[in-house]
Amino acid sequence: MKSRILLSVLYIYALLVSVLRAIRFPSDWAEAHWLMDYRFGITKRGLAGEIFGFVFDKNEMNIMILSAAILTGLYLILLIIALKESCRKQIHSLVILFFVTFFLSQYIVFSAHLIGYLDHLIFLMTVLTVYFIRKKQTFIASLIAAISIFIHEISFFLLVPVSIFILIVSHFSIDRFSFKILLNKHFLKKIILFVALPLFSMIVLFYVQEFHLNLNHAQIFNYLTSFKFISEVPADAVASGFTKSFAYQWDAQSPQFFQRVFASTCTVFYGIPMAFMFFLMLKIFNLKKNLSLLLFIVIISFCPLLLHAIAYDTYRIWTFPFMIMFLIFWILNSSEVDLKPNLKLTVFEICAFAICILLMIFSPVYLFDNESDKFSGVIKIILTLPLIFLLIFSIKKSQIKNLRYFK
What is the pTM of this model? Predict the structure, then answer.
């Protein structure tokens, strides 16, 4: 019981450190997305605003309340999952490092900064989809995935790959995974049944957006600026985003794809902590025995980076793999996998974690709207010290319990 309380304090503290670096009220850009609905036709990202407008009055206060509720709900679910998985079999020091790394990651910082945007709702729906697949309710999960496409098309690169992974884990023994088993007829039928609805939604959305709708930029701009709390610059950006076709975005953004993925600042500042999280999963789940599974996890985790071919917000997109890895860890750890005993951290693990701390907390964070990190270097040092003490104490506690467990 004491260990659970200590871990709860550690995870909440790490989460708060990240959130407080960038938290703000929903931006005009985020609020504008909740104002968009189907008044101009069945456009992309219009379903959330349509439902919101049906249930509530479209005003700034209601958007703020809904945004806060969605983000708070997401954080609570993440904390509950992290605490439950940390204590599922025995408290494992590497598992603690994994979750602390996640809660300090750039994903949490950006999620606070982008409060009110549709990404958070998509990840809540992803958690719900995983839940229903585990309950063998594949059709309901597929229906949720299909609906999520109309809330935001990024669902196809976030929710769908994670759902395919949980389908694999629920269908095959993890120890026996290989790419060959993906050709199993019964499994392929299951995948097709799940993917059919979200794929159909994506095709419909693409067809309507590319060939049917003739959205007028000025019309959307005038509609958004009719709300006093939406200024002209974000209204123009949102109107442009809704009127530009997928083909236009591909032509404009795809030339920068390889630079954004392989040669950007994110490749280092985000990539190294991600590599450390992959390393922790390799050690925790003993994936040396199944490198095919490790490779598949890497592929699923980096699926969101394909968005660089159609979108320019590089820093936001690079945060998505952190969340995908969190969900994959949850799926793996809650399946029938025996954790490898690890009673003492190695020097390499300690040094690698220290480097990740430096990169995640002390490296510059490039936020939207010309905003910057709310904490100075001195404040970050002051906030990091209690975190380190809590982490050391938690790991020491876990090592003592592990010694008893494996005896």
Answer: 0.94
